[in-house]
């Protein structure tokens, strides 16, 4: 039986890629002058806590922390492309993040809930059917939103870096040499993608919300807000499980919609983009090894 590979992941940035391991991460970003800048960070603290290994709890911790780290490096990469006077930081940054998060919750959770609720009064739908309509509206909004923003040139480039990230991880997991020319041959699909997580979350919300009993007034919306975190945690576990069973034909059939949706959020990258992604991945691996070597050094010092 072959040794199980580490589950590395990443995220597209603005003119860059973030690669993340279990003990370290690295972000590689190309400046307007063509230079690749790399920032690394060790993952310590909560990642060494036994709670981080518990199912469902690890999902909540990982998703929350990934959101913070992802937004941080997205901001860094965005500021790298602008002048000093245009940088987003301080109160303006936090206000932008808060508005973005609120818009996301409102658009993809509360608005569909309101539309589903209206079908009870205007179309005489049952509670069950109104919840189904809510889920379908949520799915349509999510897919439509992704498709629409993908038509924007700047977002299209981000999606190309997303494709570069997937190709790099696929090449590593296949044992290939990490050069732009070789990595370019690999697929832009990957089962541990955030797009796959999003679709899984939406499908789970359709199933769970469909079987909720009648909730009047504001309780319908409160229930949706309260269930976001548990559903996100369950989605995380399902994505993790499916990625560990990629040789199972039934699992491959189940995840096909997830992989298909990724073609909305990934584009074929250029060799220059792959160069950035590979630089991020190699730097992340180096950071992983640094963290692993620390206990050995301490042990030698104390002996």
UniProtKB/TrEMBL annotation:
* Transmembrane domains' residue ranges: 56-80, 92-122, 128-148, 193-212
Protein keywords: Membrane, Transmembrane, Transmembrane helix
Query: Is Transmembrane helix included in the keywords of this UniProt record?
Result: yes
- The answer, when asked if Ribosomal protein is one of the entry's keywords, is no
**Record Pfam families:** DUF1385
InterPro entries in the cross-refs: DUF1385 (IPR010787)
Name-wise, this protein is Metal-dependent enzyme
Q: Which organism is it from?
A: Leptolinea tardivitalis
């Amino acid at each position: 039986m072959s040794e199980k590979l580490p589950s590395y992941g990443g995220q597209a940035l603005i003119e860059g890629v973030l690669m993340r391991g279990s003990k370290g991460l690295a972000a590689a970003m190309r400046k307007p002058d063509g230079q690749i800048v790399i920032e690394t960070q060790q993952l310590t603290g909560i990642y060494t806590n036994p709670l981080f290994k518990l199912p469902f709890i690890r999902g909540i911790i990982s998703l929350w922390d990934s959101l913070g780290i992802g937004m941080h490096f997205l901001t860094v990469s965005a500021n790298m492309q602008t002048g000093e006077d245009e940088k987003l930081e301080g109160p303006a940054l936090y206000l932008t993040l808060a508005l973005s998060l609120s818009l996301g919750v409102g658009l993809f959770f509360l608005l569909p809930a309101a539309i589903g609720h209206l079908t009870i009064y205007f179309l005489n739908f049952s509670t069950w059917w109104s919840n189904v309509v809510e889920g379908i509206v949520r799915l349509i909004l999510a897919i439509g939103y992704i498709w629409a923003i993908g038509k924007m040139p700047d977002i299209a480039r981000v999606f190309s870096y997303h494709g570069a990230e997937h190709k790099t991880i696929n090449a590593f997991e296949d044992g290939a040499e990490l050069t732009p020319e070789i990595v370019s041959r690999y697929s832009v699909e990957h089962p541990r993608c955030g797009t796959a997580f999003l679709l899984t979350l939406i499908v789970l919300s359709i199933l769970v919300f469909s079987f909720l009993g009648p909730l009047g007034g504001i309780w319908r919306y409160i229930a949706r807000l309260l269930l976001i975190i548990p559903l996100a945690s369950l989605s995380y576990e399902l994505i993790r499980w499916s990625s560990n069973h990629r040789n199972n034909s039934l699992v491959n059939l189940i995840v096909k919609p997830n992989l298909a949706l990724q073609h909305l959020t990934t584009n074929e990258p250029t060799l220059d983009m792959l160069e950035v992604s590979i630089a991020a991945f190699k730097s992340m691996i180096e950071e992983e090894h640094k963290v692993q070597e620390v206990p050995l050094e301490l042990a030698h010092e104390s002996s």
